[in-house]
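Contributing new complexes? Match this layout with zinc ion.
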Amino acid sequence: MLPFKLIYSDHYYLPIGDHVFPAEKYRRIRDRLISTKVAGPEDFLEPQPATDQDILLVHKPEYVQKLKTGTLSPREEMEMEVPYSRDLVEAFWLAAGGSILAARQCLQDRVSISIGGGFHHAFPDHGEGFCMIHDVAVAIRRLQRDDKIRTAMTVDCDVHQGNGTAAIFAGTRTASALLPSASASTVEQPKNAPRGKMRGAHAGEVFTISLHQHNNYPLWKPPSSIDVDLPDGTGDDDYLAWLDNALSSGLRQFEPDLICYIAGADPYKEDQLGGLSLTIEGLKKRDELVFNVARARNIPVMVTYAGGYARNVEDTVSIHANTVVAAKEVFTEVRHKGSEPLP
Ligand SMILES: [Zn+2]
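Output block (do not edit by hand):
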């Protein structure tokens, strides 16, 4: 039995027909985890859909109304890049409910993984890039409203920049004023920034980190607190060094009550929509790095899966399943002679 919970429902499936987004990946990840005995049926929790009230913590009433009544304009539907249906609306409300449950669950178990979600291209007033509702932002706002957390940090490792996340949390005081986003070199900047300034963060604040390929969607990248714009073809070693640097920089300035890790599988070298060159092993090391940092600092971490468009869908499933393996390895306490004392 895992020392944490996996959040999953068969209804995470997105009814979008023949599409580059492999909507069946969620069920395949679950099946893989069970067939390889990484997890058992008892490790899974079934989420409830978010309420309209939850969705409205992030999204504009006019947009929510259009979704609920099927009155998006053809242009709005085209921008979303997934075909509108009532069932699709329900799947996104469920993804948001899954992220709320994962966020709550990780506060008691240190980590929780939703085998879904991570729709980081959704904005308050519109959807784009396969994303209708920003499930992670909804989860953060719901837990803040319930006084379960004051602050949060998003760590977005999808190959595409987290434009929705950056836009949604731009209004809160983040380090974007200290860290103008431009290129990977700006990650060095926090060393010169006034240290400790963000450490006494105000309730409601969300610090956003995005590591992504520069030459890729979205064309317009609203600034995150830290953006790492990676060049085409970045491989495992460089990627891991930048991630380590961004996490250290972020956590030097900001002490979050929750980390929301968006573990996209699309930095993979065989991805159809990505242009980075990470291997399956490198992506697992990426997951381990995020989990080790969260564990060492005692910050609860929730995970969502976002994109993954490998030519062979089994690779996408392997990368996502490995995220659970990495969490299991990092968060299973193994005491043996010579090991460091656990915190
Ligand atoms: Zn992506």
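Reviewers usually confirm one structural detail per submission. For this one: The mean pLDDT is 91.
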